[in-house]
């Protein structure tokens, strides 16, 4: 009798699970054809790392144009202040410049405290800063590998430790992390970089899930991971493209616009261009040799720096 009862409970749970899965599939299809309205960022306080140039600078300018208070962090004080001055000239929003080495935990916490005192609580955090040395694996120095992980991975931990508690306290916030297409597929001459960007994906997925379960599904804090194709910021010095017209470098402004769209639409993950994520998922269903044949055909990546 007890076994029959337990079996009935398991069957009911399985049926409920199937119904939930079907519901969320239908919901996803609906949202694909009828996208939700983008949420406003006016009045939010957005902190972006690496705002001295490239994607970070474009993000700062665009968030300011949408009415957000923008807090700009960069290790290069001069270029960072140039970004803030550009924002101030538009008169669209308040902007603040802070010099910070995000790889240094003590420095992150010190500057974070200044931000809290001078600006207030950060409600949107964009971890954008990163470096990308391009060498064959055995040509990377020990210090270089450590530096890649300090900036591309450990900085994310320090920034989250500094700013996530206030988001949790208010149950309001959004964290955006810049990974890379190199974070969903390995690329020659970028072994440590790829590993660092895979780590960002794991960090974001696990912290999101931890917060969901610890709050019993009540957390309103959102997490978005971005996987850009090669962006024309100068970071990628020797891009290799067999079909440059079909796979051109992404302009920084275009990348920034898509990142902000993903954040405002509460996307959990987004590649730039957007078709790369489903293509990667489909491609990995095929045998390894067929995937390698496809990679050889596309012949896209980076050459080693001289």
From TrEMBL:
Localization (cell): Membrane
Spans traversing the lipid bilayer: 7-25
Membrane topology: Multi-pass membrane protein
GO terms of molecular function: all-trans-retinol dehydrogenase (NADP+) activity
Entry keyword Transmembrane: yes
Keywords from the named record: Lipid metabolism, Membrane, NADP, Oxidoreductase, Transmembrane, Transmembrane helix
Highest taxon in the source lineage: Eukaryota
An annotated GO cellular component: membrane
Role of this protein: Catalyzes the reduction of all-trans-retinal to all-trans-retinol in the presence of NADPH.
PANTHER family attached to this UniProt entry: PKSB, RETINOL DEHYDROGENASE 10
Family the UniProt entry places it in: Belongs to the short-chain dehydrogenases/reductases (SDR) family.
Protein name according to UniProt: Short-chain dehydrogenase/reductase 3
Organism: Cyphomyrmex costatus
């Amino acid at each position: 009798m007890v076994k029959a009862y337990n079996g009935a409970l398991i069957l009911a749970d399985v049926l409920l699970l199937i119904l939930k899965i079907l519901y969320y599939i239908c919901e996803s299809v609906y949202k694909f054809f009828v996208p939700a309205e983008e949420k406003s960022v006016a009045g939010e306080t957005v902190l972006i790392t690496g705002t001295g140039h490239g994607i970070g600078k474009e993000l700062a300018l665009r968030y300011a144009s949408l009415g957000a208070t923008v807090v700009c962090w960069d290790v290069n004080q001069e270029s960072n202040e140039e970004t803030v001055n550009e924002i101030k000239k538009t008169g669209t929003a308040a902007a603040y410049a802070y010099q910070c080495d995000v790889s240094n935990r003590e420095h992150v916490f010190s500057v974070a405290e200044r931000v809290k005192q001078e600006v207030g609580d950060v409600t949107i955090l964009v971890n954008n800063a990163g470096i990308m040395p391009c060498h064959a694996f055995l040509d990377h120095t020990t210090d270089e590998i450590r530096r890649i992980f300090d900036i591309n991975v450990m900085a994310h931990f320090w920034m989250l430790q500094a700013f996530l508690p206030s988001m949790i306290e208010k149950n309001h916030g959004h964290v955006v992390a810049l990974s890379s297409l190199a974070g969903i597929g390995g690329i020659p001459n970028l072994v440590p970089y790829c590993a660092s960007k895979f780590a960002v994906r794991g960090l974001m997925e696990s912290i999101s899930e931890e917060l969901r379960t610890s709050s019993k599904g009540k957390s309103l804090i959102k997490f978005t991971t971005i996987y850009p194709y090669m962006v024309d910021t100068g970071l990628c010095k020797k891009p290799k493209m067999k079909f440059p017209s079909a796979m051109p470098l992404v302009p920084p402004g275009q990348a920034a616009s898509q990142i902000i769209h993903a954040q405002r639409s509460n996307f959990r993950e987004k590649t730039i261009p957007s078709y790369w994520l489903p293509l990667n998922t489909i491609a990995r269903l095929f045998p390894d040799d067929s995937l390698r044949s496809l990679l050889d055909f596309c012949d896209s990546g980076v050459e080693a720096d001289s």
